[in-house]
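quick one, two chains, predict together pls
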Amino acid sequence: MREFFARHKEDLTRFMNEYLSTSSCHKLKVRPFGRDICREIASFSEKGKMIRGGLVALGHYFKGTRGTQDVLKVGTALEIMHSALLIHDDLMDRDLRRRGADSFHQRYRNLAHAQRLKDPDHFGDGMAICGGDIAFFMAMDLLGTLECDQGIRQRIWNLCSREMAYVGTAQMVDLYLGASEEVFDEATILELYRYKTGRYTFSLPLISGLLLAELDEDMVNAVDRIGEKLGIVFQIKDDELGLFGDEQQTGKPVGSDVREGKKTLYILHLYNRAGPEARSTLSHIIGNPAATMDDVVYVRDMIEKLGIRQELERRVGSMSEEARKMVAGLDMANEDAGRILLELIDYNSSRLK
Amino acid sequence: MREFFARHKEDLTRFMNEYLSTSSCHKLKVRPFGRDICREIASFSEKGKMIRGGLVALGHYFKGTRGTQDVLKVGTALEIMHSALLIHDDLMDRDLRRRGADSFHQRYRNLAHAQRLKDPDHFGDGMAICGGDIAFFMAMDLLGTLECDQGIRQRIWNLCSREMAYVGTAQMVDLYLGASEEVFDEATILELYRYKTGRYTFSLPLISGLLLAELDEDMVNAVDRIGEKLGIVFQIKDDELGLFGDEQQTGKPVGSDVREGKKTLYILHLYNRAGPEARSTLSHIIGNPAATMDDVVYVRDMIEKLGIRQELERRVGSMSEEARKMVAGLDMANEDAGRILLELIDYNSSRLK
């Protein structure tokens, strides 16, 4: 699996750099921002694991034939869209670090300080809104050049547009829950995980690859469901890493979700199980941008003490097991692709970054 | 002309409402935000003049045949994209009013206050980032369903993606010039006008209509250039209305560009011609969010006194005359479409809202 994704990351990086450095936006002469944004997107994307791009290739590999140029195009487009989402997300979540470096808006805030521009924070934030928008459209532009059958091309366009609209809608719910005191339930959180991360991270790229390989609808539907399972596990692990992870490995500050008041399964169960006194302490920590590392450690300790971490690990385990069974039920032409998918399920439930 | 655009606005409004209220995003069950955002986009778009949507129909009408469903689809998609741009723009420009109502982020700030959510401004801003993103994707989703020849469909998809990426890049330049003390020149401002407003407001919709009508490349290229001329005039008038317009008619507060420090042709010439003393006064007004109405009136009076308003009116006049000549040179199958385009050129250079 590692070798498969590493190889595809190389191909994707090469293709993305070539695409971005010759794109119409790069050539736009109104000041150097067109060129800059293309470079920023490329270097920002390279720092990621490029799982989504690799999954398009994996979906296509189900058929066992060699990957096409279209596989690279869709993979690159999804990676660029993912970068765009992260740029906008970090702004909304006030995250100053991403992928081991300053987040996109923070980089432009720095530039504004260095050049003594007016209102550096507002400038940086505006540049990040534009940067994300531009990246979305450059991804769409690339999808417009697919050479496959027109029906498949159109279906991939609609799939991508819809899944991205779902991500935005789920992000609205996330913002709302983060800002309100409203009692929320597990079903809502799971729906959020499904639409905000799960589907666009796993289902969308895998299905796109299957469609490019012209595999049948039964396969597409089955893989769609496997993708959702993987996605929910991915998000639970993401929340876990945000609490218990190693910043050096994740590239994101531990505790930022706590400070932002993000409503995760961990936080839900914590509120449900904590006694009245602890709950009152928690309410001063969760959603408090000034929460200290000690505060975050308090939250972590409570999560461990109340057995929540173990319980969610168990659920991650059983969901992964269900996904494994679903993979076993697939009618695969290429056993090697099945093996990689199974390895991915294991990696996904135990990853440290 | 008025009748043509009014009729098409009716058709577009009907089509947009139907599209948005049955879209996949509207049906998304994670809380009511999917439904809400669809309603917001529809009601926000209805308040506009829907010029862009009407121009797709006008471009198609060049051939003289009846409009197709695809004309409505592209028109609606461009109107939704325009709404998305305004949502993000108002956030970047800190405009609290738009189309005679609270701007999109301001509406969600109000909701946050009413529901006592945490950090209402941050919440409203985040919702506007998501709202714009969702609208972009819903527009692309609609473009993905065109029923025309696949080559034309693909070309329109790429045209839209590229022009929108240009708008974002030009907006970056706009933000930069607004925040820096850098000396800027007329050529930069004109490039900005071209890519930030001109092309996507006129060239893009007109060309899309011509492509749907399967008109030839010579026509497409000529209309592209006419669209740019119209677009630059449109932006100069927009700047003028932002200074001298009637808020009741424009729906936008007079002087907000001055407070935001927007670098327009008016401001460029003002800086170039003002004496040292006036320049020092101006530097305390332009880009000062706390500038009073008296300050704005001072800027306006200087612009009138130095003959800048008249000069720019003259240039608007001569650019419109060039556009008229270009229209006369078109080999039109349908004279009525030519008449409407000429009327539009007149309206564009004299509009009050």
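The first strand of chain B starts at residue 97 and ends at 98.
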